[in-house]
């Protein structure tokens, strides 16, 4: 095991989860920020190109030592988790789906994970988990009630965020059911693989729409840096790290706190107002999250 992994494993899980929520939520704000400077797929493609190049020296040795079959499996999981998820959510926003509605659908990830594990793999989940997720969904809907607008997008575009969320849910369940525990890869190695496989996908998607070369502007550079460092290295990296140490139900339930944290980001960066409904919804989501976490502790006791 890597020395860095040993050190990270000593960090309390609740602290890692708090950092995960903060950085995961920054991704939605980053999409809004980026939209003012460049096409969303252009920002995403260069975000992954830079990450693929920048992270490679740190993971080259473990990538060379990982069996080809394991690498191929992680590439497919990475394509679902990163490219599939972002293409759905960002693609919906680009087609005219309101950003708040797309983010709200994405934050229903815990429900998607539970449904897939229950109906596809016949896993049994205690009533406390279902009750917790129900409260989490209710709290998320209350927090984002003002964001539930239909907008002017074509009807098919509203399915894109749903498809993106389900893509990440499938990758989450598949990863957790991999008996070799990440195929021996560190979270950083997994993050590089996901960036490596996503870069050509988004480059191709952007090529179908127009310009693929980076824009020479401060706004574009800031957009790429923000989404690469906070959303990808921070949010996605911590997501897989937490998943390695806990269950999908617990890790994804923590993301029910993403909508209010996203709104706090928006308040700090764009001056968007906060509301009482946000506080009520956050409290309900937190209660649901605690039910899921408490049940997980009982099962591991």
Automatic annotation (TrEMBL):
Belongs to the EamA transporter family. Pfam families: EamA. It is a multi-pass membrane protein. Signal peptide: none annotated. Keywords: Membrane, Transmembrane, Transmembrane helix. InterPro entries: AA-Vitamin_Transporters, EamA_dom, EmrE-like. It is found in: Membrane. The keyword Membrane applies. This is Membrane protein. It comes from the Bacteria. The chain crosses the membrane at residues 39-59, 71-93, 99-120, 127-144, 156-174, 186-208, 220-242, 249-268, 274-293. It comes from Caballeronia grimmiae.
